[in-house]
Specification:
The chain has one domain. Helix content is 38%, strand content 12%. The chain has 2 helices and 2 strands; from the N terminus they run αββα. It has a two-stranded parallel ribbon with strand order 1-2. The longest helix is centred in the C-terminal third of the chain and has 17 residues.
Amino acid sequence: MYHYFRLWRLDRTWKHLNDVLKTSNDFIILLLDNSSTHKAKKLVITENIALLFLLPYSPELNPIERLWQHIKSKLTYILS
């Protein structure tokens, strides 16, 4: 199962993650950038989650960055 969600508010992020965990017994690997909200001290991780953090200052490793680049390119073409 693949889930993408925008990580911009800590409470919404972890509520969504908890909802996913309630519906799945699968082991989940969560790929995160180094936003401070992803490293909150209040975060509780269960046994079926592994957090993998991207290297700092490495947008080329973040899949969403490639999507943004594609969208910007298409919009530039359409709007020009």
